[in-house]
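Supplementary Text 2. Reproducibility record for the structural model of the 123-residue chain.

All settings were left at their defaults, and a single model was retained for analysis rather than an ensemble. We include the record here because the model underlies the residue-level annotations in Supplementary Table 4.
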Amino acid sequence: MSNKKVEITERAAAVVNELKEKYGELIFHQSGGCCDGSAPMLLEKGDLYLDESDILLGEVEGVNFYMNKDQYEYWKHTHLTVDITKGRGASFSLEIPLGLRFLILSRLFSEEEQKYFASASKE
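Retained model, structure tokens:
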């Protein structure tokens, strides 16, 4: 069982660390359909205005991962894994000039994970 809502593959983590060295503090935001469809965007911290409509799902490789609460309603029963692939995305994400793009692998939470997160949200 994973007690995290979002994780990252080793390949994607290596790219995140490379980009952290170049840009400093970063954030992930799961886009809601703009530009590259629903894709995780890696941005410099402060380049995207976050407000009460954005939910912090967790941290991957020292980078906070956010999603808009409206989109989260569709994804709240889903475990997300950030991965990377070759190809040029159409977003403003920092990996695009490297000829790469982040993507999300997803699966439904197990019953045990659903119970864990339900009880954790009540605390």
